[in-house]
Amino acid sequence: MAVFLGVLAPLAALACTPSPEPADTTATLAGSGACRNLPPGPAEPPAGAVVVDAAVPGDLQAKTKASPPGTTFWLRPGTHTLGTDEFDQVAPKDGNTYTGAPGAVVDGRDTNRYAFSGKASGVTIEHLTVTGFDAPDNEGVVNHDSGAGWVIRSNLLTDNRGAAMMAGARQVMTGNCLKDNGQYGLNACCGDVTDVVLEGNEFVGNNADDVESKYADGCGCTGAMKFWEVDGADIRGNWIHDNRGPGIWADTNNNDFLIENNLIENNDGAAIFYETSYNATIRGNTLKRNNLVSGREFVDRDDNFPSAAVYISESGGDARVPARTDRIDIHDNEFQDNWGGVTLWENADRFCNSPANTSTGTCTLVVNDVANCAPPGIDTDPLHGDCRWKTQNVQVHGNRFEVNPRNIGCQAMCARMALLSNYGSSPDWSPYQGDVIPQAITFDQNNRWYGNTYVGPWTFVAHDASRLVEQIEWQGPVYRQDAGSTFAMGGGK
Prior knowledge:
Blueprint: H1 26-29, E1 50-52, H2 59-66, E2 72-75, E3 78-81, E4 97-100, E5 104-107, E6 124-126, E7 129-131, E8 140-142, E9 151-153, E10 156-158, E11 163-166, E12 172-174, E13 177-179, E14 184-188, E15 193-199, E16 202-204, E17 225-227, E18 230-236, E19 239-241, E20 248-251, E21 255-260, E22 263-265, E23 272-275, E24 278-283, E25 286-288, H3 292-300, E26 310-313, E27 328-331, E28 334-336, E29 342-346, H4 383-386, E30 394-397, E31 400-402, E32 416-421, H5 436-444, E33 448-450, E34 453-455, E35 459-463, E36 468-469, H6 471-474, E37 486-488
Parallel strand pairs: 1-2, 2-4, 3-5, 4-6, 5-7, 6-9, 7-10, 8-11, 9-12, 10-13, 11-14, 12-15, 13-16, 14-17, 15-18, 16-19, 17-20, 18-21, 19-22, 20-23, 21-24, 22-25, 23-26, 24-27, 25-28, 26-29, 27-30, 28-31, 29-32, 30-33, 31-34, 32-35, 34-37
Antiparallel strand pairs: 35-36
């Protein structure tokens, strides 16, 4: 993957404008998901459209090449195929539109890698089924090269390898069904992707190939969707369910995410995983039965890490990185029978220039050169603070957390909230040895729970994984968490 080392420049005008307070839309998502309700495309070609014939192999490629920018193509009903070479693909021109008649399918026949590629801007893909493409891991089928300003709407993207689609700057993805793709439904990467909108889509059954298992030590590269170095994303009103891995995963120097009004349920991993990233609002979502598979895996290997539905890992608010908020604000969400609640974690060994930083060669957004994060500079501020991704300025409030361990088959290590780190130890020159980071995340970095509602036998992990505390200690004078929260602690284990 490409690596971005500098500070993100302020946007001239944020395309992702602030949204109103969340409405309660999640209750209707399951009954009106995109996969059941894809609107049909036009039965007749739009005025001026170039007609593409399914009976002529390669007709879509040939007519795209022969037509000027800004052409609308109408694909007749039937199965459209490309050439026989693995690199046969459609390369749109600026402003092209591809719209499918009812029953129009673009099929890669497990031969072609990519369906729509290239750097054209302002391309629209709509009312098509795109299937059978064999993209490699970490690559995508639709908008493979992350062209800017694409609109991808009302499509069925299914049974492809790799990711069903990539994202470019200002891309809008609405009303699509992304189903049973090999690695991801969406892969948004790396550094030039800004201000994307993902609304009203359904992600189901993705990571069908269990890509994580192909790598001896795992790859951290699976789930419904993955974001890397994306600045500005609105993810709202989507139904994200039954995927192998996390639901929403933002990993490495993402910023300014608004995640609202989504129904996220029955995913094997966390509902939302926000990792080494900045500034986000997570509100008005319904999270149900997530992380049950991953949670049980922790139990099976006797790992007492607090596996969670919302996992904030080395991520926090920072006003120096321009965004619509200067915190991670998790509020007014409904949590129902997930393995865990919210975990705020900071790995003391993971910082810029550390061998434990799995985002190799990448630095924080407030340090412009990895080489700066070495002794003696890293031993004193500002680099002592700026060389690590901090879990800081996280607010968890106004949420309802409900769990009955019997409902999720849990006998141990579920129904936990957590605020913790590990004791730093690597490398030898690390300035974060001992309990420097556990103390910082727990007491000094403005991480607060308050005004929440708890139903069920919740417990709390504080400072490090060995400290499991009850409600009275969590709220007491040492940790001072969950002021104004209410607790109905029944439910039994």
